[in-house]
Amino acid sequence: MQHHIISPPPLPVARIRAIPLRLFNYRLAAMSLSSRGLLPLLLVFLLALLDGPAAISVAAEKDLYKILGVNNDATDAQIKKAFRRLSLKYHPDKNPNDAEAQKRFMEVQEANEVLSDPDKRATYDLHGWDGVVKEKEAAQRGGGGGGIFDFFGGGGHQGKRKTPDFRTEFSVTLEDLYNGHTRTLKVARKVICKSCKGSGAKGGQTRTCPHCGGRGQVMSVQSLGPGFNIQMQTPCDKCQGKGKIAKHVCPVCHGSRLQMEEKVLDLIIERGMKDGQEIRFERAAEQRPDHIPGDVIVTLKTQSHSRFRRVGDDLHMDQSISLRDALLGHKSSFAHMDGHRVNIDTTGDIIQPDSIKILKGEGMPLHEMASDKGDLHIHFKVRFPRTLTKEQQEAIRALFPSGK
């Protein structure tokens, strides 16, 4: 935002938006056309000429999804499968001296290069093929910027805003965390309209904004007090600073440039993951024009289990036994969460109330090292009889004389 004190009235100002015919991909800052401004303008123009092919931005729009024969919401696996099939079909070794096949082969390679890369695919979905070309040119110039022209407002993704991350909780069972599982999560979100590529215009056809004359900026005067006014340059609210408006409104998004979409995410729950652990899907949140999409962040919430309690990588469980078993030994078994049998044997041991027996390697798998496991802690709960008959009392007295 530029501020100009109106005293005396400002010199005539022209907004140089781009070199005619889009020959050069540089946006220049407002510059006075007075004698003091002509020399810098000439310098900028000459530097653009010297910058050579890197400054040229002539790219025809192409549909990469159509080239691979997949839908816009195709999964990575579907894209990979289509790429392999078409690569084999049009491979030069199978089509010698066939120029059309070679052309299709190159198109397939190019489409896969973009759609198989999450960052490049996001750029293409948001800004089309022209956005991919501009991003590649910016990377070739180094650091994602445009050299000296960064001073005049050019250059890659620097300063680009990001939409908010979307956070949600997902309920999982202890069995899911023990065995690993893949669940699906559906997220309703706003995305760039696929019909108009976010232009809001039917067929992408636009015309110069009559409000700002195509400059994308308008000048406004604000009074800060008696005799003290400032002139400010602000984005045009009619075209949102684009300098273009739709010739005909897009019939899909009705000019909003956004449409609702239900995104299906494959939630891969790895063995040994913990309660509260986050799974992040980069750039899967809501989209907006000229924004980088935020992430979808899923927090795992573990349901309570009927048998086990988890503490770190260990499992704890209660085992109720009779007084007889506590004195003479206890044998039992149960099915673990993956189906294998776990045997409990206290033969030869006298079990004290609330004593604990530890079974090594029968706990939770260690995340990222699932071949190793924690331990299982068995807490014994001894059931004492509520009453004893006279015969039972006499038998106990005989077995345990007084004081022993």
Strand content: 25-35%
Uncertain segments: 1-60, 144-158
What's the CATH H-level homologous superfamily of the domain at 309-399?
Answer: Urease metallochaperone UreE, N-terminal domain
Largest sheet: 4 strands, mixed
User: Distance N terminus to C terminus?
Assistant: 93 Å
Q: Please trace the helix and strand order, writing H or E for each element.
A: EEEHHHHHEEHEEEEEEEEEEEHEEEEEEH
Pick out its properties.
404 residues; alpha+beta; HSP40/DNAj peptide-binding domain; 4-stranded mixed β-sheet; 3-stranded antiparallel β-sheet; 22 strands; 25% helix; elongated; disordered N terminus
Topology:
Elements: E1 3-5, E2 13-14, E3 31-32, H1 35-50, H2 64-68, H3 76-90, H4 99-115, H5 118-141, E4 161-162, E5 166-172, H6 174-179, E6 181-192, E7 206-208, E8 217-225, E9 228-235, E10 244-246, E11 258-269, E12 278-281, E13 291-292, E14 296-302, E15 309-311, E16 314-322, H7 323-328, E17 331-335, E18 341-345, E19 356-359, E20 365-366, E21 369-373, E22 376-383, H8 390-399
Parallel strand pairs: 4-13, 5-14, 16-22
Antiparallel strand pairs: 1-9, 2-3, 6-11, 7-10, 8-9, 12-14, 15-16, 17-18, 19-22, 20-21
Helix pairs in contact: 3-4
Give a structural overview.
The chain has 404 residues and is of the alpha+beta class. Among the domains are: 160-196 and 258-304, HSP40/DNAj peptide-binding domain, CATH 2.60.260; 309-399, Urease metallochaperone UreE, N-terminal domain (HSP40/DNAj peptide-binding domain, Sandwich). 25% of the residues lie in helices and 29% in strands. The protein is built from eight helices and 22 strands. Strands 15-16-22-19 form a four-stranded mixed sheet. The protein has a three-stranded antiparallel sheet with strand order 1-9-8, with no helix packed on it. The protein has a three-stranded mixed sheet with strand order 5-14-12. A hairpin with a 2-residue loop joins strand 8 and strand 9 (228-235). Helix 3 (76-90) runs antiparallel to helix 4 (99-115). Residues 1-60 and 144-158 have low confidence and may be disordered.
